[in-house]
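Good morning C.,

I know you're traveling, so I'll keep this short. The sequence:
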Amino acid sequence: MASRLPLAGRRFLVTRPQAQAADFIALLEQQGASAVCIPTIEIVPPESWAPFDFVMRDLDDFDILILTSVNGVAAFFERLLENNQYYGVLTEMLIVAVGPKTAAAIEENHIHPDIIPADHRAEGIVAELLKHGVEGKKVLYPRAEIARPLIIEALQNAGAEVSAPVAYRTIMPEESKEDIRHLLDSGAIDAVCFSSSSTFANLYAMLGEDLKTLQGETKFFSIGPQTSETIRDHGFDVDLEPEQWTLDALVAAMVEYYAE
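The tokens, ready to paste straight into the viewer:
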């Protein structure tokens, strides 16, 4: 019975892009919750593919490939095909996936990542690669336009040559602003779920200091420490962060949170 499900009667705002929210919403609904998806970020291509394609011409020169998101995986394999590159080149490279979702996206392209760090952040990737040794290695790191420079700087300092073309950008969908304002103002949402720093940063950019008033009793749930840091840096509390930084773990933590 739906009434016996642990999140029955709860309603959550999902801020992920619509195309990427379905799995998360399904997980919430399986636990009896209802979810409203109003994205605070939209994934778009780089302003030009030229820098990315320039690097891809010499793909067989690289020793290591780092992929840090499903969006980065999609962009990489799109340009691989666009540039008529041979998939076999990838079998000669050490392939790093930041976490299980990124790894699954890579495997959908029939390529298996060699490294999935236990710490699903840039810090985890750097720590694992430093164990392997990167001095003199050529590293390809397709990245988000707003990605932190940590991976680039740490690997360069360790003697690697890093190419980091922009694979995608995140922009703010202006049409979401008033919908979210109305939803929060109505007090009809138990919590807002943030799956990346930019999902919160864009919400704050949309609403500014009004967010403090509009939040009311609504909780803020975060996917992991980097997102939580962004929320706190803007002066807000994080009500829930799972021990593992995946959407499955977040839903499990939400079940436990409301059980208590």
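Safe travels,
E.
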